[in-house]
Amino acid sequence: MNKTVNQKAWFLVLPVLVLVAFSAVIPLMTVVNYSVQDTFGQNEFFWSGLIWFEDMLASERMWDALGRQLMFSGIILAIQVPLGIFVALNMPKSGVWSSVCLVLMSLPLLIPWNVVGTIWQIFGRVDIGLLGYTLDAIGINYNYTQDTLDAWVTLIVMDVWHWTSLVALLAFAGLKSIPDAYYQAAKIDQASRWKVFRYIELPKMTGVLTIAILLRFMDSFKIYTEPFVVTGGGPGNATTLLSIDLVKMALGQFDLGPAAAFSIMYFLVILLVSWVFYTVMTNLDKQEG
């Protein structure tokens, strides 16, 4: 007996496909088109092959920006993941205070990226900013616009303040999913607090922590607005991350071909890392199943 397949559901999916085409596929194909062409101006293009990709791979500028980007992402992950877990472990698990903590932890996530950059730009100024003025008053020479270390510390602290809440909330959700029976069994066995965390809580949080690491890596690897507003990539090129360098190349220098090749390689790196995390998450789900 042949079953009749209802194709009307495709009409519900069609608007999404059209939106994705205009917002993702068409711009991506435009970038691919620019990456294999060159121009002498007047909107006249000619085929150049893979020359822009070769130039970018041989570019010391791109590798320096990639190194700064990987260092930034590595530092914030090394700070935010353990800190988020620590905060989640010490949050009340139920009651009014639990709700209050969840609301307070969510507040930084509601602030737009450009506003976050503006807040910390003002906050760190020596003349009018609370942080800069306080550090200057106690004798600490702090200037994120002129000192490389100060600029990096400011960006890292700003990102930790903004996004640690996400890791904490995901870890808290993982902790809430653990049945009370596990804790009761650990109490009967007189397990220490460290063993409860090591053998009960951490394994149960593995899935959500993998998601948290994936989200934070992707977001930190393409961060642009906050460091651009605070430091503009300076002092010098000290905080010129990949996204800032790409925008300078595309809009500041108007090198469309190299910028297009740069952006495609940028996209492929993020895609590769995302695929690795997805594979890890899938394997974890299979093991738990």
Characterise this structure:
With 289 residues, the protein is mainly α. It folds into two domains: 43 residues, no CATH class; 228 residues, Orthogonal Bundle (MetI-like fold). The protein is 73% helix and 2% strand. It is built from twelve helices and two strands. Strands 1-2 form a two-stranded antiparallel sheet. α7 packs across α9. The longest helix has 33 residues. The radius of gyration is 24 Å and the shape is globular. It starts with 8 loop residues before the first helix and ends with a helix.
Please provide a brief summary of the model.
By secondary structure, the protein is mainly alpha-helical. The protein folds into 2 domains: 7-49, no CATH class; 61-288, Orthogonal Bundle (MetI-like fold). It is built from 12 helices and 2 strands.
Write the layout of secondary structure elements.
Layout (H helix, E strand, L loop, with lengths): L8 H27 L1 E3 L5 E3 L3 H7 L2 H31 L5 H11 L6 H11 L6 H8 L10 H29 L3 H9 L4 H29 L3 H6 L11 H11 L3 H33 L1
Antiparallel strand pairs: 1-2
Helix pairs in contact: 1-12, 2-12, 3-7, 3-9, 7-9, 9-12, 11-12
CATH superfamily of the largest domain: MetI-like
Global shape: globular
- For the biggest β-sheet, the strand order reads 1-2
Q: If classified by CATH, what would the architecture of the largest domain be?
A: Orthogonal Bundle
Number of domains: 2
Terminal CA distance:
35 Å
Number of extended strands: 2
CATH class of the largest domain: Mainly Alpha
Look at the helices and sheets and give the structural class.
Answer: mainly alpha
* Rg result: 24 Å
Question: Biggest sheet: strands, sense, closure?
Answer: 2 strands, antiparallel
At CATH level 3, the topology of the largest domain is MetI-like fold
The number of helical runs is 12
Helix content: over 70%
Which regions contain 5 or more consecutive residues with pLDDT less than 50? none
